[in-house]
């Protein structure tokens, strides 16, 4: 196990800033969906495996800005997607479509539009659940490896209840500083080492300026997905999905303070997989922000071996 110190404001300052190109695609039911595309001009031996970045439940493609720039500078084509109802993608009039199977079909259409014949997936939280599902659709020859950012086949339900209690609340703020304060209030225990500038940076990833204020970048109706949770219901058994990934490499990024991914689940993920490794990020919880150079380098090394 390797451990990175929680220096959230260490980053890729020495990396040239690459600007992604926006792209859109249509869902099967007609929604206009949005993604960001860091395209590489290199070819042949200089071209490294493309990476599809999938965000968390209420998150968006801006979460991957830092690591995408780092990987792009190393000749990886990087794609980050906004699910329906998040970021710049259209909201769905029926909140029941904010469901994993529907979103997985949206992701498949994006992959088809981009013509990606071989790729790796970097999935944060919900994005990692998508990677588990995608293993049934894409063989190892196409989806060559998976990076799970603080998620696995077993999810600690106390974390889901914590998220459910805040999802859809505090959607509006007068300033970015207020957004940062709200985030610190709700998830401060997951990121005890964060300073004011870190909270402001995170706030800028999660909220956009609108009408003189700031609004969180997701449809508040998303909260309905978690509103009907049964406290007595056991967590779903996703280990059979993980078994579909035994034929391709896996990297597990674990936030030391995480209440969603336990050390026990991490150990089982590594112990039961012939080619899995673990990277623990100290001082961070759910989900690690992927800002620090040490994390970038670990991801790049993993991808290089693909």
Give the structure's gist in a few sentences:
The chain is of the alpha/beta class and 306 residues long. Helix content is 31%, strand content 21%. It folds into 2 domains: 2-165 and 238-304, Alpha/Beta hydrolase fold, catalytic domain (Rossmann fold), CATH 3.40.50; 169-217, no CATH class.
Would you state the CATH class of the largest domain?
Answer: Alpha Beta
Question: What is the SS-derived class?
Answer: alpha/beta
The CATH homologous superfamily of the largest domain is named: Alpha/Beta hydrolase fold, catalytic domain
Show unreliable segments. 1-15
State the share of residues found in helices, binned by percent: 25-40%
Shape: globular
- Radius of gyration based on Cα positions: 18 Å
Largest sheet: number of strands, sense, barrel closure: 9 strands, mixed
List the secondary-structure elements in sequence, H or E. EEEEHEHEHEHEHHEEHHEHEH
Q: How far apart are the termini? A: 20 Å
Q: Taking strands numbered 1, 2, ... along the chain, how are they ordered across the largest sheet?
A: 1-12-11-7-6-4-5-3-2
Mean of residue pLDDT?
92
Itemize the secondary structure elements and their pairings.
Elements (H helix, E strand, L loop, with lengths): L1 E3 L16 E6 L5 E7 L9 E7 L10 H8 L3 E6 L18 H15 L4 E6 L1 H9 L8 E7 L7 H10 L5 E2 L2 H12 L8 H11 E4 L2 E4 L7 H4 L11 H5 L6 E6 L7 H9 L4 E6 L11 H12 L2
Parallel strand pairs: 1-12, 4-5, 4-6, 6-7, 7-11, 11-12
Antiparallel strand pairs: 2-3, 3-5, 8-10, 9-10
């Amino acid at each position: 196990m390797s451990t990175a110190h929680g220096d959230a404001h260490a980053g890729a300052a020495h990396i040239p800033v690459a600007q992604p190109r926006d792209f859109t695609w249509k869902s099967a039911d007609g929604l206009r969906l949005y993604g960001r595309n860091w395209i590489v001009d290199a070819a042949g031996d200089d071209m490294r495996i493309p990476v599809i970045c999938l965000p968390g439940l209420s998150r968006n493609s801006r979460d991957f800005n830092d690591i995408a720039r780092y990987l792009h500078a190393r000749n990886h084509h990087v794609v980050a997607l906004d699910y329906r109802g998040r970021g710049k993608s259209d909201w769905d009039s029926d909140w029941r479509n904010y469901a994993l199977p529907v979103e997985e079909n949206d992701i498949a259409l994006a992959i088809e539009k981009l013509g990606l014949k071989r790729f790796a997936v970097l999935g944060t939280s919900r994005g990692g659940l998508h990677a588990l599902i995608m293993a049934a659709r894409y063989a190892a020859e196409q989806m060559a490896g998976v990076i799970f950012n603080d998620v696995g086949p077993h999810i600690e339900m106390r974390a889901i209840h914590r998220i459910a209690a805040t999802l859809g609340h505090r959607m509006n703020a007068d300033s970015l500083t207020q957004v940062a304060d709200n985030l610190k209030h709700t998830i401060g225990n997951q990121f005890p080492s964060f300073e004011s500038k870190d909270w402001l940076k995170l706030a800028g990833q999660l909220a956009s300026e609108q009408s003189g204020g700031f609004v969180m970048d997701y449809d508040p109706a998303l909260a309905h997905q978690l509103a009907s949770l049964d406290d007595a219901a056991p967590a779903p058994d996703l280990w059979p999905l993980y078994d579909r990934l035994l034929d391709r490499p896996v990297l597990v990024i674990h936030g030391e303070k995480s209440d969603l991914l336990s050390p026990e689940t991490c150990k089982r993920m590594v112990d039961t997989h012939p080619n899995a490794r673990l990277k623990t990020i100290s001082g961070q919880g759910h989900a690690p922000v992927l800002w620090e150079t040490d994390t970038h380098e670990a991801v790049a090394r993993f991808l290089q071996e693909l």
